[in-house]
Write a structure and sequence with these properties.
The chain is an alpha+beta fold. The protein has 26 helices and 17 strands. The structure holds iron/sulfur cluster (SF4).
């Protein structure tokens, strides 16, 4: 291989200034070895280009879309797109990725990343056809749903095969939970990134790329890719293929980790009796299993409501365990068509279905405890609601009525607004960390993940810190607080590897197909030609997490913010494996200190030390971080 050539990367970053309608290019290679790709490069750009304390919706904010070095190769699950910006909900790092044809088109068009900055004067969409880039009027599409937008843009461009990302009305209205949808399927769901696009008057980006990419060592890579594909078709991923992620309903219910009725319980009789399980979902409702490009696992299970259904005839929804939780177990609704309808509303109108469902769950509990009433809403909303849950969800997304005004921006804002109205302690029922709604794990009996989820760089999240596996597998006593340093190291291991995965970018469900981290380092080297070892790649994972943490500290996050909701410390389950258990503050603080110590961050403040910053090549951060004063932004 010649030293001058770039392998696997397309080689260019595209920058589009929407204010001046200007286009710039810069080389990718300066970021490649250190920041790998995807979110790693995205977060470097954010730290270095976005000034402290600006709001997510300022034209000075950036949104960075990226593919990784593996996209476009045969590596399984590698067709993923990342988006990084300020988080609309936490105001720290916002980062999301999803499987996407878009990532392939981006690479094949000749780009690794797109940085969007500024704000267009009127609604626009960007059309990138290989080297030809146009900023087009989107006034006629503004107000349309994401699915309508796909059809309209494809029709306008005269090509049904064009892939695009777009926002729905929620993003246009700069709703904090707004997401970005890829084609009519996958979501860049978390962190409110749809609102960032909306604030820039950017309705969509459409792509066509027809070039190829080269890998550095094709023969060796082909051999490795064949092996990885074979493993990806084997037992390591069977659960995702067979029942899809909803297989987790039963397994987490058994462990008392399945949040039910807004975390009042961790088990549910509707799972015990088989009414609301992955098996039932697949037997009664799933009509198709769909795979992302370059994946043979096909975990995406599409459910269909029959034409004869009185309320939602012929409705299709892509069903993931997170939505079975957010609109199902957590709202106490076991009526599958209701759950499907709520998923469809979130995807089509454009909000994150985890945030949406958890916010609806908060509303159900507030209704049950009398902090909101039928008079407020215009209808009843107890746990287990069906049609009223759908009505609430649509109003919440579209900003209509009490549901929209109070709950439209997620749980934290709902708590603030209700308490300002004199509804005392309403915020207590909002299950979020730092503003981002919690994913499907009940922390009462998960002491390792209580820390992992609380330190996650984007707020409550199981996809930036996978320490739930430590509790589910029993690596440590999940009800206890022993071995803080050892646990801290284990929590870090899963966090760092996730940072690498989100930068390569590959699907997290394919992680188990690699024999070890050394093989993950090898695959990078084979496609890019840039040497990395297990030790050096893990160091880059730690560097990416640390840089994200620095961004968050700069925005005002403190040790006190690394904390689960109070409910876990005060209210215990009444049944199941975690019956009678609450988290203990002193034990939690001990484990949190263990995590900071293992990171080499200051234990009192959670701020990375100068020595650590230097070790990771983050010298540009030294001297810029101070313990927050004056409180954090809300
Ligand atoms: S495992 Fe599922 S989410 Fe991951 S790449 Fe395959 S189909 Fe897509």
């Amino acid at each position: 291989m010649s030293k001058q050539e770039i392998y696997a990367y397309s080689g260019k970053i595209l920058r589009i200034d929407l204010t001046s309608a200007s286009i710039f290019y810069e080389p990718t290679i300066k970021y490649a070895r250190e920041w790998l790709g995807g979110s790693g490069i995205g977060q470097w750009i954010l730290y270095n280009e976005v000034k402290p304390k600006i709001t997510p919706y300022s034209p000075a904010n950036r949104i960075v879309f990226g593919a990784g070095p593996l996209a476009g190769t045969l590596a399984p699950g590698s067709s993923r797109l990342s988006a990084d910006s300020i988080n609309g909900l936490t105001l720290g790092i916002g980062s999301s990725n999803c499987d996407s044809h878009f990532a392939l088109e981006l690479k094949y068009a000749g780009y690794d990343q797109i940085i969007c900055q500024g704000k267009a004067r009127k609604p626009v969409y960007i059309w990138i056809d290989n080297g030809n880039i146009e900023i087009r009027d989107a006034s006629h599409i503004w107000g349309k749903t994401t699915w309508e937008t796909v059809d309209l843009i494809r029709e306008e461009l005269g090509d049904d095969g064009i892939h695009l990302i777009s926002i729905g009305p929620a993003g246009e209205n700069v709703v904090r939970t707004a997401c970005i949808i890829q084609d009519k399927g996958r979501a860049l769901g978390r962190c409110g990134l749809g609102g960032i696009m909306g604030s820039k008057n950017l309705k969509a980006i459409a792509f066509r790329g027809t070039k190829g990419i080269k890998v550095a060592y094709p023969t060796e890579f082909y051999k490795m890719a064949k092996k990885l594909i074979k493993v990806a078709n084997g037992p390591a991923t069977a659960k995702y293929r067979d029942l899809g992620t909803p297989s987790g309903l039963t397994s987490y219910n058994k462990l008392g980790m399945m949040p039910t009725m807004n975390y009042r319980e961790g088990t549910w009789e509707e799972i015990d009796n088989g009414a609301f399980t992955g098996e039932t979902l697949n037997i009664d409702w799933v009509v198709k299993k769909v795979a992302c490009s370059q994946c043979s696992i096909a975990c995406d299970h599409i459910a269909r409501v029959p034409k004869t259904h009185p309320d939602y005839p012929d409705l299709f929804a892509s069903v993931d365990v997170e939505m079975c939780y957010s609109f199902g177990t957590n709202t106490g609704c076991s009526d599958w068509p209701t759950v499907f309808k709520c998923i469809e509303l979130c995807d089509d109108l454009g909000i994150d279905a985890i945030s949406g469902g958890v916010t609806a769950s908060m509303a159900c509990e507030l209704y049950e405890v009398g902090l909101i009433t039928k008079k407020d809403l215009g209808y009843e909303l107890p746990f287990g609601s069906t049609k009223n849950l759908v009505r609430f969800t649509e109003e919440m997304i579209m900003g209509k009525g009490f549901a929209g005004e109070i709950f439209g921006d997620g749980t934290r804002q709902a708590g603030i607004r209700l308490e300002e109205m004199g509804r005392k302690n309403a915020g207590y029922y909002g299950m979020h960390i730092k503003g981002l709604e919690m994913p499907a794990f009940d922390l009462h009996g998960m002491t390792s993940f209580a820390v992992g989820e609380s330190v996650s760089i984007r707020g409550a999240c199981h996809l930036r810190n996978g320490a739930y596996g430590l509790d589910a597998k029993g690596t440590f006593d999940r009800f206890g607080y022993d071995k803080p340093l050892e646990r801290g190291k284990a929590i870090i291991d899963v966090e760092d590897i996730y940072a690498i995965i989100d930068s390569y970018i590959i699907c997290k469900f394919t992680r188990g197909i690699y024999e070890n981290d050394a093989e993950m380092a090898k695959v990078y080297e084979l496609v890019t030609g840039i040497p990395h070892t297990e030790a050096s790649i893990n160091e880059r994972g730690a560097a990416i997490v640390t840089l994200s943490k620095c961004f968050n500290i700069r925005e005002g996050w403190t040790r006190a913010d690394d904390h689960p909701p109070e409910k876990f410390f005060k209210d215990a389950h009444t049944k199941g494996p975690a019956k009678g258990v609450t988290l203990k503050e002193d034990g939690y603080q001990k484990l949190l200190s263990g995590y900071y110590e293992a990171r080499g961050w200051d234990v009192e403040t959670g701020i990375p030390t100068d020595a650590i910053l230097k070790k990771f090549g983050l010298d540009f951060v030294i001297g810029k971080l101070k313990p927050a004063s004056g409180g954090k932004k809300k």
